[in-house]
Amino acid sequence: MARPAEGCPQCPAQPEAIRTYKAVELHYIRAFRQNWSARLSYTYSQLRGNYSGLASSDEFGRNDPNIERYFDELHNSFDQNGKLVTGPLNTDRPHAVKAQVLYRAPWGTNIGVNSSWMSGTPVSEEVTYRGVPFFPHGRGNLGRTDSLSNTDLLLSHAIPFGKYGFEASINVLNLFDQKAVTRIGNNHYREDMCAAKYIPGCTAGVAEKVFFSAPFDTDKIMASAPVQPNYKKAISYQAARGVRLGVKFTF
User: Fold this and answer.
1) Which residue of 105, 131, 224, 234 is most buried, as measured by CB atoms within 10 A?
2) What's the pTM value of the predicted model, to 2 decimals?
3) What is the CA radius of gyration of the chain?
4) Residue 66 — pLDDT band, cuts 50, 70, 90?
């Protein structure tokens, strides 16, 4: 842990990055024989901490390594009670079931199926304070997105010409055109909490002192603030069905 900020004895020390992944996996693998193979797996996992990775899942995939919002301000790591916020990170999916099956028909056509089902991801309310978001009620307080299931289908057939040949294929992604919600609006208010009309005297030099002076009620302070139109609403969905055709020359 780093030392507390100078001139702010009530401020906690800057926390270190925490990212802990634990998992147990059960799997079954059948090698290809008698024209078919299969791989089945179930994973139970936990992803906890305050650091959601080089491609920040807190910012839904922002890929500026170590230039994300984490640790931009001390309050980013704490809730409205001044407690360190650690919890389920945005890519935490406790349960995951996956299956891959390949079958070769007697006439030479390959049929492959890739299917999966996974738990939804946590949704954490954010409020902006001096331009940097924080989690007033901790991580995962808004529940989770829909569970995510997906099935892909691959058909391929080789046509030989002596020592050469062609292989034609069709790959259907999201075969059943499922439309699970993958992201929910989590930014609560349209205005910054560190504004004179909400917290008088909340200026750059004393903002952190004010934040850590005592527990506060974010919703009470922001009672008159306009709410983001997409707060708690679906803003992103599973990709629609896609079809890819392919031709491959073999030699």
Assistant:
1) 234
2) 0.86
3) 25
4) confident
Please provide the DSSP assignment of 86-104 as one string: -EE-TT--SEEEEEEEEEE
- Buried/exposed code over 80-90 (b: 16+ C-beta within 10 A; e: otherwise): bebeebbbbbb
Q: How far is CA 80 from CA 6, 28, 141, 218, 236, in A?
A: 21, 46, 13, 7, 28
Closest CA to 212 of 72, 73, 48, 50: 73
Phi, psi of 77 (to 5 degrees): -95, 5
Reported as a pLDDT band with limits 50, 70 and 90, residue 55 is confident
For residue 35, the number of C-alpha atoms closer than 13 Å in the C-beta half-sphere is: 9
Opening angle at CA 217, ends 61 and 189, nearest 5: 40
